[in-house]
Write a structure and sequence with these properties.
Structural class: alpha/beta
Largest sheet: 5 strands, parallel
Distance between the termini: 27 Å
Radius of gyration: 17 Å
Protein backbone atom coordinates (compact mmCIF):
# COMPACT_ATOMS: atom_id res chain seq x y z
CA UNK A 1 0.00 0.00 0.00
CA UNK A 2 0.96 3.61 -0.38
CA UNK A 3 2.48 5.77 2.29
CA UNK A 4 -0.16 7.36 4.47
CA UNK A 5 -3.63 7.26 2.96
CA UNK A 6 -2.64 7.94 -0.64
CA UNK A 7 -2.84 5.19 -3.27
CA UNK A 8 -0.16 5.52 -5.95
CA UNK A 9 -1.48 4.77 -9.44
CA UNK A 10 0.19 4.07 -12.78
CA UNK A 11 -1.56 4.32 -16.17
CA UNK A 12 -0.71 2.29 -19.28
CA UNK A 13 -2.75 3.05 -22.41
CA UNK A 14 -1.71 3.76 -25.99
CA UNK A 15 -4.33 6.52 -26.32
CA UNK A 16 -2.91 9.76 -24.90
CA UNK A 17 -6.39 11.28 -24.56
CA UNK A 18 -7.58 8.30 -22.52
CA UNK A 19 -4.54 8.58 -20.27
CA UNK A 20 -5.12 12.30 -19.80
CA UNK A 21 -8.76 11.70 -18.95
CA UNK A 22 -7.96 8.96 -16.46
CA UNK A 23 -5.25 11.06 -14.84
CA UNK A 24 -7.62 14.01 -14.47
CA UNK A 25 -10.41 11.87 -13.00
CA UNK A 26 -8.19 10.00 -10.56
CA UNK A 27 -6.15 13.06 -9.66
CA UNK A 28 -9.31 14.76 -8.43
CA UNK A 29 -9.53 12.16 -5.64
CA UNK A 30 -7.45 13.33 -2.64
CA UNK A 31 -6.70 9.69 -1.79
CA UNK A 32 -5.13 8.93 -5.19
CA UNK A 33 -1.89 10.11 -6.77
CA UNK A 34 -1.12 9.32 -10.41
CA UNK A 35 2.65 8.76 -10.28
CA UNK A 36 3.42 7.52 -13.80
CA UNK A 37 2.00 7.02 -17.29
CA UNK A 38 3.03 4.79 -20.19
CA UNK A 39 1.89 4.40 -23.77
CA UNK A 40 2.43 0.67 -24.26
CA UNK A 41 2.63 -2.59 -22.35
CA UNK A 42 6.34 -2.74 -23.13
CA UNK A 43 6.83 0.11 -20.65
CA UNK A 44 4.95 -1.60 -17.81
CA UNK A 45 7.79 -3.40 -16.03
CA UNK A 46 10.14 -0.40 -16.14
CA UNK A 47 7.36 1.94 -15.00
CA UNK A 48 6.51 -0.29 -12.04
CA UNK A 49 10.13 -0.75 -11.00
CA UNK A 50 10.83 2.98 -11.16
CA UNK A 51 7.66 4.44 -9.65
CA UNK A 52 6.32 1.58 -7.45
CA UNK A 53 2.58 2.23 -7.94
CA UNK A 54 0.10 0.43 -5.70
CA UNK A 55 -2.38 0.02 -8.55
CA UNK A 56 -1.73 -0.16 -12.28
CA UNK A 57 -4.48 0.56 -14.81
CA UNK A 58 -3.63 -1.37 -17.98
CA UNK A 59 -5.25 -1.26 -21.41
CA UNK A 60 -5.95 -4.72 -22.85
CA UNK A 61 -5.16 -3.99 -26.49
CA UNK A 62 -1.99 -2.10 -27.36
CA UNK A 63 0.09 -2.16 -30.58
CA UNK A 64 3.55 -3.21 -29.36
CA UNK A 65 2.94 -5.33 -26.25
CA UNK A 66 -0.61 -6.18 -25.23
CA UNK A 67 -1.90 -5.78 -21.70
CA UNK A 68 -2.11 -9.52 -21.05
CA UNK A 69 1.56 -10.15 -21.74
CA UNK A 70 2.47 -7.03 -19.80
CA UNK A 71 0.33 -8.17 -16.86
CA UNK A 72 2.13 -11.51 -16.76
CA UNK A 73 5.48 -9.75 -16.72
CA UNK A 74 4.47 -7.29 -13.99
CA UNK A 75 2.99 -10.03 -11.80
CA UNK A 76 6.33 -11.84 -11.87
CA UNK A 77 8.02 -8.87 -10.19
CA UNK A 78 8.62 -8.86 -6.42
CA UNK A 79 5.66 -7.21 -4.64
CA UNK A 80 3.80 -6.32 -7.86
CA UNK A 81 1.02 -3.71 -7.90
CA UNK A 82 -2.63 -4.64 -8.20
CA UNK A 83 -3.66 -4.49 -11.84
CA UNK A 84 -6.98 -3.31 -13.26
CA UNK A 85 -7.50 -4.05 -16.93
CA UNK A 86 -9.20 -1.43 -19.09
CA UNK A 87 -11.32 -2.43 -22.06
CA UNK A 88 -13.91 -0.94 -24.40
CA UNK A 89 -15.79 -4.25 -24.61
CA UNK A 90 -17.82 -5.88 -21.85
CA UNK A 91 -16.31 -9.29 -21.05
CA UNK A 92 -13.72 -9.05 -23.79
CA UNK A 93 -12.25 -12.56 -24.14
CA UNK A 94 -8.76 -11.16 -23.63
CA UNK A 95 -9.75 -9.94 -20.18
CA UNK A 96 -10.37 -13.53 -19.04
CA UNK A 97 -6.79 -14.40 -19.91
CA UNK A 98 -5.57 -11.30 -18.10
CA UNK A 99 -7.47 -12.25 -14.95
CA UNK A 100 -5.89 -15.67 -15.02
CA UNK A 101 -2.51 -13.97 -15.48
CA UNK A 102 -2.94 -12.11 -12.21
CA UNK A 103 -5.04 -8.99 -12.82
CA UNK A 104 -7.36 -8.01 -9.98
CA UNK A 105 -10.30 -7.13 -12.18
CA UNK A 106 -11.34 -5.01 -15.11
CA UNK A 107 -13.28 -1.89 -15.94
CA UNK A 108 -14.86 -0.51 -19.06
CA UNK A 109 -13.29 2.73 -20.26
CA UNK A 110 -16.64 4.49 -20.02
CA UNK A 111 -16.94 3.70 -16.29
CA UNK A 112 -18.31 6.78 -14.47
CA UNK A 113 -15.59 8.84 -12.75
CA UNK A 114 -16.81 8.12 -9.22
CA UNK A 115 -16.84 4.38 -9.89
CA UNK A 116 -13.36 4.52 -11.40
CA UNK A 117 -11.90 6.08 -8.26
CA UNK A 118 -13.81 3.65 -6.06
CA UNK A 119 -12.43 0.74 -8.07
CA UNK A 120 -8.87 1.91 -7.45
CA UNK A 121 -9.48 2.09 -3.71
CA UNK A 122 -11.20 -1.32 -3.63
CA UNK A 123 -8.40 -3.04 -5.55
CA UNK A 124 -5.73 -1.29 -3.48
CA UNK A 125 -7.41 -2.75 -0.38
CA UNK A 126 -6.92 -6.25 -1.78
CA UNK A 127 -10.34 -6.94 -3.26
CA UNK A 128 -11.25 -7.70 -6.86
CA UNK A 129 -13.41 -5.56 -9.11
CA UNK A 130 -15.73 -8.41 -10.03
CA UNK A 131 -19.41 -8.43 -9.23
CA UNK A 132 -21.08 -11.83 -8.60
CA UNK A 133 -22.61 -11.66 -12.09
CA UNK A 134 -19.22 -11.09 -13.69
CA UNK A 135 -17.74 -13.82 -11.50
CA UNK A 136 -20.35 -16.28 -12.79
CA UNK A 137 -19.56 -15.42 -16.39
CA UNK A 138 -15.82 -15.49 -15.81
CA UNK A 139 -15.96 -18.91 -14.17
CA UNK A 140 -18.26 -20.25 -16.88
CA UNK A 141 -15.74 -19.10 -19.48
CA UNK A 142 -12.88 -20.63 -17.49
CA UNK A 143 -14.70 -23.98 -17.29
CA UNK A 144 -15.37 -24.04 -21.02
CA UNK A 145 -11.76 -23.18 -21.79
CA UNK A 146 -10.42 -25.77 -19.34
CA UNK A 147 -12.59 -28.90 -19.61
CA UNK A 148 -11.89 -31.46 -16.94
CA UNK A 149 -10.23 -28.97 -14.59
CA UNK A 150 -12.66 -29.90 -11.82
CA UNK A 151 -10.94 -33.25 -11.47
CA UNK A 152 -7.97 -31.79 -9.62
CA UNK A 153 -8.31 -30.05 -6.25
CA UNK A 154 -5.70 -27.51 -5.33
CA UNK A 155 -3.36 -29.18 -2.78
CA UNK A 156 -3.43 -26.07 -0.59
CA UNK A 157 -7.11 -26.62 0.18
CA UNK A 158 -6.14 -29.30 2.67
CA UNK A 159 -4.33 -26.64 4.73
CA UNK A 160 -7.41 -24.44 5.15
CA UNK A 161 -9.34 -24.36 8.39
CA UNK A 162 -13.12 -24.81 8.31
CA UNK A 163 -13.60 -21.06 8.68
CA UNK A 164 -11.10 -20.30 5.93
CA UNK A 165 -12.94 -22.70 3.65
CA UNK A 166 -16.18 -20.81 4.33
CA UNK A 167 -14.45 -17.54 3.47
CA UNK A 168 -12.98 -19.13 0.34
CA UNK A 169 -16.44 -20.15 -0.82
CA UNK A 170 -17.77 -16.63 -0.24
CA UNK A 171 -14.87 -15.04 -2.11
CA UNK A 172 -15.52 -17.46 -4.96
CA UNK A 173 -19.11 -16.25 -5.07
CA UNK A 174 -17.89 -12.70 -5.63
CA UNK A 175 -18.65 -11.27 -2.20
CA UNK A 176 -16.66 -8.36 -0.83
CA UNK A 177 -15.04 -8.49 2.61
CA UNK A 178 -17.93 -6.49 4.05
CA UNK A 179 -20.51 -8.86 2.56
CA UNK A 180 -18.58 -11.90 3.79
CA UNK A 181 -18.48 -10.40 7.28
CA UNK A 182 -22.26 -9.94 7.27
CA UNK A 183 -22.85 -13.47 6.02
CA UNK A 184 -20.43 -15.17 8.42
CA UNK A 185 -20.91 -12.79 11.37
CA UNK A 186 -17.32 -11.56 11.44
CA UNK A 187 -15.75 -8.13 11.43
CA UNK A 188 -14.36 -6.91 8.14
CA UNK A 189 -10.86 -6.91 9.66
CA UNK A 190 -11.23 -10.58 10.60
CA UNK A 191 -12.38 -11.44 7.09
CA UNK A 192 -9.38 -9.61 5.65
CA UNK A 193 -7.08 -11.62 7.93
CA UNK A 194 -8.66 -14.89 6.74
CA UNK A 195 -8.33 -13.85 3.10
CA UNK A 196 -4.64 -13.06 3.62
CA UNK A 197 -4.08 -16.54 5.08
CA UNK A 198 -5.93 -18.09 2.13
CA UNK A 199 -3.70 -16.17 -0.28
CA UNK A 200 -0.63 -17.60 1.45
CA UNK A 201 -1.87 -21.19 1.72
CA UNK A 202 -3.11 -21.33 -1.88
CA UNK A 203 -0.16 -19.32 -3.25
CA UNK A 204 -2.50 -16.80 -4.89
CA UNK A 205 -2.01 -13.11 -5.53
CA UNK A 206 -5.62 -12.00 -6.02
CA UNK A 207 -9.25 -12.93 -5.41
CA UNK A 208 -9.87 -13.94 -9.01
CA UNK A 209 -7.42 -16.81 -8.65
CA UNK A 210 -9.11 -17.79 -5.39
CA UNK A 211 -12.49 -17.81 -7.14
CA UNK A 212 -11.15 -20.15 -9.82
CA UNK A 213 -9.75 -22.56 -7.21
CA UNK A 214 -13.04 -22.51 -5.28
CA UNK A 215 -14.94 -23.18 -8.47
CA UNK A 216 -12.67 -26.06 -9.45
CA UNK A 217 -13.20 -27.64 -6.03
CA UNK A 218 -16.98 -27.25 -6.17
CA UNK A 219 -16.94 -24.87 -3.21
CA UNK A 220 -18.57 -21.88 -4.90
CA UNK A 221 -22.25 -21.18 -4.39
CA UNK A 222 -22.92 -18.72 -7.19
CA UNK A 223 -26.67 -19.01 -6.72
CA UNK A 224 -26.36 -17.48 -3.27
CA UNK A 225 -27.64 -14.10 -2.20
CA UNK A 226 -24.47 -12.35 -3.33
CA UNK A 227 -25.11 -8.89 -4.72
Amino acid sequence: MAEGDVTRVGLIDDDSLVRAGLAMILGADPGIEVVAQGGDGAEAVTLVQKHRPDVLLMDVRMPKLDGITATQAVCELPSPPKIIMLTTFDMDEYVFRALEAGASGFLLKDTPPQELARAVHVVAAGEAMLSPTITRRMLSHFSEANPGSHQDRHPGLEQLTERETEVLSAVGAGLSNAQIGMRLFMSEATVKAHVSKIFAKLDCTNRVQIAIIAHEAGLTDLDSDAV
